[in-house]
Every structure is written in C-alpha cells, then in structure tokens.
Amino acid sequence: MMKKRMVWLITGINRRMMKLLIALALIAYVASVWGTYANMRSLHENGELKIEKKIEEVIAPLREKIRDLEVSFTQKYPPVKFLSEKDRKRILITGGAGFVGSHLADKLMMDGHEVTVVDNFFTGRKRNVEHWIGHENFELINHDVVEPLYIEVDQIYHLASPASPPNYMYNPIKTLKTNTIGTLNMLDPEVHPQSEDYWGHVNPIGPRACYDEGKRVAETMCYAYMKQEGVEVRVARIFNTFGPRMHMNDGRVVSNFILQALQGEALTVYGSGSQTRAFQYVSDLVNGLVALMNSNVSSPVNLGNPEEHTILEFAKLIKNLVGSRSQIQFLQEAQDDPQRRKPDIRKAKMLLGWDPVVPLEEGLNKTIHYFGRELEYQANNQYIPKPKPARIKKGRSRHNL
C-alpha cells in the first residue's frame, strides 16, 4: 500500500515537472522565435539605415548646391523705408557707381526712393552698388552721359566726372565734355576762405584746366537753362571728401597717404607740405547734397569741412593712426597746386541747417580699415596697387622725416 502511494506521489511530481518543463520549453521557444524576429527586424532596420545613409551621402552635395542657388537668388538688401506714392521720388544719379555717388545711392535707397544709377564705369565700380542689384527700387544703367539719355525722373544728381588728377588728365577732352554737362564746381582758391561769391582763379591751359574750366562752364549752362527754360537748379561746390570706396590708386592725398602707410612705404608730400586742405567724410557730403536738393536754394552752396590742416600735418596724422614707421618724403610741388583750400559754409548752415559732424580721426579710421581689407583682398589675388600720382614733372627727393 505504501509502495503504491509512493509511486502515485512520484508520478504526480513527474507530471508537474513535465508540465513545468513543457512550459519552460514553450517559453524558450517563444523567446527564441521573438529573438530571431527581433534580430531580423534589427538587421532590416540597420539595412534601411545603411541605405538611407548612402542616399544622404549622394543627396547632400545636391542639397548644398540647391541651398547656394537659393541664397544667390534670394538677395538680402539693406533695410529700406516704405514711402507712399506721393512721397517716393524717382531719382537719377549720374556717376552713381563712383565713390560719392554710391554712398548717395545708399542713402536715397534706404530712404525709400526709386533710384536709377547711370555710370560708364570709367572710374566707377559695379561692386560699389552690387548690394542693390535686383531690388525693385533700383536700376543700374551702363551709359556715358556725354551721349543723350531719355529717362523720366523727379530729381537728378549729376556726379559724373573723373575727380582725381590721374583720371581726368588721362583724357582731358573726354573730361571736358563730361564736365560741360555737369552741375558741380570746385574752384581753385584765391580768396581764403572761399565763399560762394568767389569767382575763382583758374589757369585755362594748365593740367587741371579740363576739370576746372569744365566745371565753370557747367554752372553757366545750368543757370542759362534755369533763366531760359525754367529748369530748377541746385549747385553744390564740393570740397575735399574721403571715405570707404575711394580708389586706392587714384592719386589723391588721402588714398595715397593711407596706402603708403599701410604698405610701409614713404609718404610722398609735394612741395613743403605747408599747403592746406579741409577734409570732410563722405556721409557728411551726402547729407549736404540731399539737404540742398530738397531745399529751394538755387544759388551755389559750398559743402565741405572748414577744419583746415596742412598736408604735412595730415601725413603725420595718418602715419600715427596706421601705426606706420614710414618716412615722409618731399617731392617737387605739382603745377597749379592750390596753396590754401578751406570752404566758407555759413550759407549751408543758415539755409540748409547743414554742418559736417563726423570727426576727422573717426572718418580716417573707417577709411583705413576699408583700405586694409582691400589690400588683404588684393594680396590674395596676387595684386597690390601702388599710389598713382598726378602726371607732373617729377623732382628729386629733398629730405626725409
């Protein structure tokens, strides 16, 4: 009896063990199947990731090119004010790709006007206004103002004229033709300071005659049209101006001194250096031109900075601002070089409420920074410009400082 009970107990235990073993086997099987499925899924996902990675490697350069094209077609412009139709003017700037003209275009564009720049790129550069190309308010026309131009505008700023001696002496006939249709005038001084009623003292057969006499004729033509045809005229007499976008090799005193100082070359002073100039920063001039244009002043107005410096003082100032060890070299004085130049701007102050505000050193530091970047750019292209003095009879160096 006892033996039968023992057998039954063992048999019961064996059954439970069998059930447990079967259960474990089932769990193991399910786990095995799940593991195999998971592995297969992982392999599939890894395969997909590898395929996606390969596709990305192929597409990435194409996506980059598309992004570059989008950037090139989506031009970002400086901020522009919105003007109503009645306040927005259509304005033409001849010589608008030049030094002064391009800064004037910037101001008028940002003020919300429609601006058309006309330039034959003799001394102007497209890069000076390229940041506006494509804007709905801006148009650039490659045209020589000696030839007729038919365009309907509200205002004209006529700045088309080579202003540096090497440029206007390169083709004096062309310079004379350009200036005879101009509206600007800067006269060699005989009275000091020069007021608007000063008639000037010009050598009609000297190297500057094509520029000086052209400006004089330009004023005569403007006032003849005003009296005969009722054309509204504004005449600005611009004195020495400097700032970014000047040609570094245009032969003018500011660009020459900065370029020479940055490159460690001697600063060349013609004559004793005692002749004087009064320098204004370009933004002051632009503000003065706009104020004059929008006034009812039809008589000539001087726009310049009455702060007078000798050329030698100016050379030393630039040398110190650059931190250059360059020497100062004295050469033979240029022919017909004005000895004293300083504007009388009382008329501009009284009638326009205009006065230059940018300190000389502040403007020079901005210009030096601009020239420094230009030198870096040109050095990378294996070209470094040299100052280009006016075409004068060269003399020997007298002494150095």
From TrEMBL:
Q: Which Pfam families does its entry note?
A: Epimerase, UXS1_N
Keyword RNA-binding recorded: no
Alphabetical list of InterPro entries matching this protein: Epimerase_deHydtase, NAD(P)-bd_dom_sf, UXS-like, UXS1_N
Residue ranges the record marks as coiled coil: none
Question: What EC number(s) are associated with this protein in UniProt?
Answer: 4.1.1.35
**Which SUPFAM superfamilies did the record assign?**
NAD(P)-binding Rossmann-fold domains
The annotated pathway is:
Nucleotide-sugar biosynthesis; UDP-alpha-D-xylose biosynthesis; UDP-alpha-D-xylose from UDP-alpha-D-glucuronate: step 1/1
* Keywords recorded for this protein, A-Z: Decarboxylase, Glycoprotein, Golgi apparatus, Lyase, Membrane, NAD, Signal-anchor, Transmembrane, Transmembrane helix
Q: Does the keyword Transmembrane apply?
A: yes
Q: Which cofactor does it need?
A: NAD(+)
Q: Which residues form the UDP-glucuronate decarboxylase N-terminal domain?
A: 4-78
Q: How does it sit in the membrane?
A: Single-pass type II membrane protein
- Which reaction is recorded as catalysed by this protein? UDP-alpha-D-glucuronate + H(+) = UDP-alpha-D-xylose + CO2
GO molecular function term, any single one:
UDP-glucuronate decarboxylase activity
An annotated GO cellular component of this protein is: Golgi cisterna membrane
Q: Where in the cell is it found?
A: Golgi apparatus, Golgi stack membrane
Which family would the database say this protein is a member of?
A: Belongs to the NAD(P)-dependent epimerase/dehydratase family. UDP-glucuronic acid decarboxylase subfamily.
| Protein name stated in the entry | UDP-glucuronic acid decarboxylase 1
